[in-house]
Amino acid sequence: MMTRKTGIAGALSALALTASLATPAAAEDDTFKIGVITFLSGQAAESFGVPAWNGGKLLVDMLNEGGKLPAPYDTVGFGGMKIEVVVVDEAGGATKQVQEFRNLVQREEVDAVVGYVSSGDCLAIPPVADELKAFTILYDCGTPRVFEDNSFEYVFRTAAHATMDNVSLARYLKSRDFDVPSFAGLNQDYAWGQDSWADFKGAMSQLYPDAEEKTALFPKFGAGQYGTEISALLREKPALVHSSNWGGDLQGFLIQATARGLHKRSQLVLAAGDHVIPQLQDKMPDGIFLGARGVNGLAANARGGELKELTDTMWTAYEAEYDTFPVQAPFRMWQAIFGLKTAVEKAMADNGGTKPTDEQLAAAMSGLAWDAPSGRIEMALAGGHQAIQPNAIGTTKWNTETGKMELVDVEYYNARCVNPPEGMKSAEWLAQGFPGAQCD
Amino acid sequence: MDLVATILVDGLIYAGWLFIVSVGLTLVFGVLNILNIAHGSLYAIGAYASASLVGAYFAAGGDAFPYGSYIAMILAAVLVAVVLGPLLERGLLRYFYGRNEVLNVLVTYAVFLILEDVMKLIWGVNPYFVYEPYTLLGTVEMGSLFYVGYDFAVIAAAIIVGLAVWLTLNRTQIGKVVLAVIHDAEISQTMGVNVKRIYLGAFMAGAFLAALGGALTAPMISVTPGLGVNVIIVAFAVVIIGGLGSVPGAAIGALMVGISRAASVHLLPEAELFIIYFVMAIVLVFRPEGLFAKTQARKI
Amino acid sequence: MSSGVLEVRDVQKTFGAVTAAKDISVSVPQGSIYSLIGTNGAGKTTFVNMVTGYIKPDAGIINFGGRNIAGLPPRQITRLGIHRSFQIAQLCNELTVEENMLVAGAIHGQTRPSFLRRSDDAQARERAMATLERFDIAEHRNRLIPELSGGVKKLLDIAMAMAGETQIMLLDEPTSGVAADEKFPIMDLVINALRNEGVTVIFVEHDMDIVNRYSERVLAFYDGQIIADDTPDVVLSDTEVQRYVTGAPA
Amino acid sequence: MMRFSVFTYAAVGFVVLAAGAIVLPDWAMFLFAMALAKGLVCLGIVGMMRGGVVSFGQGLYYCLGAYTATLAANFLGVSDIFLLTLLSAAVCLVVGLVFGPLLSSYRGIFFAMLSLALSMVLYGSLSKMSFIGGTDGLNIGAPTFLGWAPEGRPLQTALYLYVVTIVVISGALMRVYFDSEQGLITLATRDNELRVEYLGASVRNVMAYNYVFGALLGGIGGTIAVLALGHVDPEFAFWTTSGEFVFVAILAGYLSVPAVFVAAIILELVRSFSNLYFPNTWQLALGIFLLIVIVALPGGLGSLVSRRKGQDT
Fold this sequence. Notes:
The structure holds four protein chains of four kinds. Chain C is of the alpha/beta class. Chain C is built from nine helices and ten strands.
């Protein structure tokens, strides 16, 4: 009996030992180590995680080489430091991510963490980041709750939150004075879908107070089969069908909906629909209104302006590397890395050129503004921790000559037109009819 | 088209799909007494295989005879069954016969995890599309609604599959042998039945049906990673409701789930997410072994 | 009606088309030893199963200790003092002989089974060993069930049933699956042990020598009915019994 | 043979585990704390395994406990760790007492599937409740210990020692229960229900007891897990979560209590490292590890160190 217990005890201490030994050394002072967390498996891998990191890898290589990009991004790495990366799969839920975050910070001793597509992870990580005083950038996730319910010292989100997407859709309808007697929704049955629908409803009730709200469908995430939902939508004949679906769920819905002529009966508006264009190509029907959660993908390509050189450099590099054009995800990864570069170099300028601490990074990052292919990013909300950025909505049109999908009738929205002002929750902002919005 | 009719048609279409993906599961459990979580992976692999094969078919100028793509789809399912069936059954599962059935659930869960990544290694993360078979049969107008002809083809396929399985089991020699094995493998063994071959055959049939489900679904979706996980629990619910190992049970279970889901989408969209588990829980409370389960008294 | 008397009146049981019990009526006095004979399917085991609650009679009364126990669950009937053994010994194969006995002891202990008291504390083991010795299987105490001979399994099966306050013991074919040369020693052991405690015994048996030697009274079953209820010599010489049950003159 | 009291073992276990607070680096201490918390849930499953059933729905109580603690903290302002633990334990006890009798008449795959269905219904309901975060879940602040509110490493250490204490206490209690008369009857039930019924014990009660204990341990485990994580979401009740608990229980086997926690720690380490070293194929690695364990240790880790020869579950 005794031996049995000591056997277990031995096993335990052995485990403890392996655990304590397996701690690699911290990054050198001439390299800057980032932990990148994004989806490498599961549904979000093909639509967000993998393209985002494809773009990220590309940019990190270009930066480490140096001189590949127009000023101010023509310097090597981050302030001369080479960029080193550890990638972790975001699949597996918030519990796993909190553990992985601790491992990255405490075991891998990364200098900064850049990651998180899932809103659940974005809510779970910040408290831990502050507890560990670890500089962290949320690069993709949409939920406004992150900074509206709490405030964090070491956590920043370099992309605008999801309210922008649906406000822009409503504004687009208005500015094209599209008649909306009634509208319905089909969104994935989890927070992203539920919140998007709520935001869209909120925006519509301001801009189209008389529009009748019809059925709001919430098929299970990853359902694949939308036959029943489509029947419901066909029966109700809403003038407009809103969907924030993404990835396989959006592709499946579009394939099945177009086969049954839903797009002929109702105008489809997609909050984040651009990223399925490369896969669907001409199977994506013409005349769909869609956004890209920012001036990303085709909208950025079509924009021109003073950011044209930067955008085209990244665009062509990406197309050359992966022979498909970059959709929204890489753009958000890029704006995160450009932001981090700007922050690091600002901090080094202040501290005399040494590798910045997490505190110095946080100080440099808050309230920062920088240029990215997706436009000017401003950390304008939540005390300089939450970015706002311009947005664009367009209409799909297949170009038979070039055999490419184009975005026509694109409308660009000033960041302050589609994002709530500092100190106001997006829900209130919608309810009060966008006070302080600057559109022109 | 009035609501009830719509609900019935939608429910029927979904039930047809459900039946195809779950009948294989119930068959495998009936014979091997293994509740196969990897069924979901086989479904996903079937979808990938059919997407690739149909893609290749059209690339090879199949437009001349597009209906050939249906043959390609079935071929894909056969391929999956022939390759993976023996590999999994002979290579792994046979070592767990007679072991605790919950342990076996874990074994297949491990297989599921492995196959998830294997699929990624083979097909990558980018989606595969093959719409041609989906749009090939045109649309059917019912009242104010349009349905895709393909949806009804799936119902037909489900009926054919159901009849085929039921007839094979109840009207053929091999079927009688299988039923004997289901009833008592040991006795059948002593009576000279090659139980090994029956097990292999049953598992391959199950794998084929799972893959067929995927193959038939592929044209209406984009085939992406994580496809399998969503199917498993639904299929589980169906076979548990119908009674493990019962083919008619799977049919009834599929109909119950299909129609209650359709009803909830049309009448109470909020409930859709867990209507399936709700039905399952209710059924189990009143029929602990499922609707069509055979309970055998114990000799003392 | 004094306790210990088992009074069965007009009990009926049919399984679909098969009649397993038709107007079964019998009264078993305290301390007597009955045997049940009959061909397979004659209704012997059905009788045992109905008395011990495995099967619920369609109709009729089973009186014991002044109350009708027909249809009660086995658990409660056992608690009333009616215990049984099984054709196939019902033991816990993952446990040792002693542990099997301890299980019986734990359930039959004076107090309710405890969540704290060790199942193998000295007192409990003492009690278990005592019973094992009474049935002469103590030397097997540390062996697992599958290693045991048919005879030992039977004895343990009976010993476990005897761990509690037993008033009536029904033995379902106590010698089936027992080597020929073990049959009589085992019956001696069991019947003596039970008789010493004044337990009423009802046993199902195919071997007429055993019936003859151990039972005070015999119930002959045929087609779900009792066709004879008398002392062994009378029953075994009954021509009807010979035709339908024993098959040959005794 | 000579017996040491269970308390001796408890003391040894406590010393060994508590040593972790000194030798372990931060990340590992957190990993161990999570593993031990999950181990508690698995201990509940092991208790049921001794009765012959395995619950595929312990996520129900893991999640229920976690949400109870979180809601109590966020809406009632309770932050004391002891109070929170008691609260969730109480809630899970009540729910366990409701479902226990219902489930006690199910066996094998049906018990597994019905318990799974129940936890999936909770998952579905929580996913719908956007007012408590829906699928995104909720955050919970750091707990206080009888008024003491540590931060950083002290907080982690305090949490770790707390879970260690709970683990040792519940481990010891379960051991006492396993070795008790009732515990032996449970083993007999797993083996031969008919015999147990004919000895005059109620098999359904046996099952119900184990289920309720499982519910309690699940709730406590969930509470500690959420306090360590700082975040809860419906995933806690998802079937894959429950599946992991079952795996740990199988890996441990039903013979040794400490084995349960060793198994839980091993799984967390394997997962964490495979996830870092094979970011693209960690599921593959985990699956292979699972198979190896099942094939190599049919009786679980416990069978390596326990006298009775192991069984499947």
